[in-house]
Amino acid sequence: MFTVIAPPRTLTAEVAAKLADMIETGTLSPGQKLPPEHELVASLKISRSVLREAVATLRAEGMVTSRRGAGVFVSETPNRRPFRLAPGELDAIPKILEVLELRAGVEIEAAGLAALRGSMEQKQGIRATASRIRQDMLRGDSGVEADFSFHMKIAEATGNPRFPDFIKYLGWLLIPRRGIKMETTASGQKAYADILHEEHSAIEHAIRVGDANAARAAMRRHLIIGAVERYRARATVPSPVDSGPVDSGEVRRRTTTDATMVHEAAAGRRVDSGRKQEDAEEVPKVGLTVNRSRRR
Fold first, then answer.
1. Which residues, 6+ apart, have CB-to-CB distance to 265 below 8 Å?
2. Residue 260 has what pLDDT?
3. Which pairs with CB-CB distance under 8 Å and at least 24 residues apart come from 177-185?
4. Which domains does the chain have, with CATH numbers?
């Protein structure tokens, strides 16, 4: 059994969302002055302080501007909002899957770059953290903190500061199980820890030996074939990114090829991949992955 735990949404966030919706739907037009404070307070049934904090949030996002002595106005280009992922919006499995797919687009390449650019010290750190995740979980801990550290260390080993910046931005969203309460037995927890350890070990080994293709394949298997399938198995509605019919034979071919690369990486053998680079880096959509035989 599982329960998605939506992070508490503050009243300020709710009011900011309502005002943003009014702007995005055209109820409040670009350049239009917001209604007087007392009217908004009365209509939304909130305090002045909550309203002011909500307006400050929209101002920070560039949706409204303040003019001294004149009031608050909708920006001329209110739809040019900065990219963000609000924790309160990830209250269902399909939404979590969307973030996993976004992560895959970044972290698969990060694994490959870490294999090519990471120092031996960084690679040893990745290996140590992979082991710590399993140890923490076997002690009854969620292993979330160590898991986050594992992915952060891979990002840092790319040598490109934008990768760890992205990981920091995602924060707890990087590890979906932190927001999901799962009821399981001790044996179930051990089995889950073993599966994660197998996946993490394949990633860290490929990175450690400098095999970029195997590292990408291992990260793809972890995020797309592993994590996504575990969460999709618990979803009660289709993922919104599922996009219709798919060539199942092609999916099986990629799954088998990736599985082979991961197995060889975990076994300590270098992989001589014959696939074209673009094929090796292609990430299948969340809704297209089929691997029902894997233990969850």
1. 202, 205, 206, 209, 211, 214, 215, 217, 218, 271
2. 45
3. 177/142, 177/144, 178/142, 178/144, 179/4, 179/5, 179/6, 179/7, 179/87, 179/90, 179/96, 180/2, 180/3, 180/4, 180/5, 180/96, 181/2, 181/3, 181/5, 182/1, 182/2, 183/1, 183/2
4. 7-74 (1.10.10.10), 87-288 (1.20.120.530)
Question: What six digits make up the tokens of 117?
Answer: 């650019």
Q: Whose CA is closest to 112, among 165, 158, 174, 160? A: 158
CA 84, chain centre distance (Å): 12
Residue 4 to residue 111: CA distance in whole angstroms: 29
Tell me how far the alpha carbon of residue 61 is from its chain's centroid. 22
The pLDDT score that the predictor gives to residue 84 is 66
Q: Which structure tokens are listed for 33?
A: 């002055």
| Separation of alpha carbons 135 and 1, rounded Å | 24
Pair 195, 226: CB distance under 8 Å: yes
Helix-helix angle 11-24:48-60, to 10 degrees: 60
Closest-CA residue to 243 (of 293, 280, 284): 284
Selection from 210, 247, 223 nearest residue 107 by Cα: 223
Question: What is the block-wise mean pLDDT of the chain (296 residues), using blocks of 10 residues?
Answer: 48 86 88 92 91 88 86 81 61 77 93 97 96 91 89 97 90 63 68 91 97 97 84 51 38 41 43 40 37 37
For 117, residues 6+ apart whose C-beta sits below 8 A from its C-beta are: 157, 158, 159
pLDDT value at residue 11: 85
Spatial distance between the Cα atoms of 190 and 201, rounded to a whole number of angstroms: 16
Tokens coding 113 = 């770059």
